[in-house]
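Listing S7. Sequence submitted for prediction.
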Amino acid sequence: MDNIRTRAWRLAQNKRNKHRGSGSVRNDFPREKKWKMMYTRSDKIVRAAQLGMAYPRVSNAQLTLKAMEEVTSA
């Protein structure tokens, strides 16, 4: 029986597959760290869209008030 899977082959496989199964894969990018470095509002809005963030942040209370205004005006 000729087995080509030697110790060197096993070491190479371990080195090649080391990244697999070492935790979950993150598909989302980290948030921007230095928003102060972005001077204009338009830059911040573009960057927030790239990151999938909501900018400017709107609180739930403000969203509720806006919804109530739309209901009463209609």
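Caption to Listing S7: primary sequence and predicted structure tokens for the chain studied. The radius of gyration is 26 Å. Residues 32-74 form one domain.
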